[in-house]
Amino acid sequence: MAKNQVYTKSYHPYHSLNDPCPDPGEKHYSTPPHLYMGFQPEKLPQFTPKEALQKGTLWPALYDPYEKNQKLKG
Predict the structure, then answer these.
(1) Shortest CA distance to 65 belongs to which of 46, 49, 50, 51?
(2) Which of 3, 13, 20, 44 has the greatest CB tally within 10 Å of its CB?
(3) Contacts (Cβ under 8 Å, ≥6 apart) of 14
(4) How far apart are CA 20 and CA 73, in angstroms?
């Protein structure tokens, strides 16, 4: 998995010229790290059991803090 992988994607929804609503602009969404890992490598570092329960995964490489709308704005 690349260290500089971008987990935030964006798109511009279709907006018709006849649509009375304002153009919604560019939308952003977060994608989880496991989508970019073709397979799980052996001997990945692991969180402690307590940390794993708090973070929702045993492996730091698969952890995504998902900072909803703090950096994404949209």
Answers:
(1) 51
(2) 44
(3) none
(4) 23
Q: Is the pLDDT of residue 53 over 70?
A: yes
The domains of the chain are located at: 8-62
* Contact (Cβ atoms closer than 8 angstroms) between residue 29 and residue 8: yes
Contact 52, 46 (CB under 8 A): yes
At 41 the pLDDT is: 83
Q: What are phi and psi of 64, to 5 degrees?
A: -130, 115
Tens of pLDDT, residues 27-47: 988 888 888 888 888 888 999
Instruction: Give, in degrees to the nearest 5, the angle at Cα 73 between 22 and 18.
Output: 15
pLDDT, greater one: 13 or 41: 13
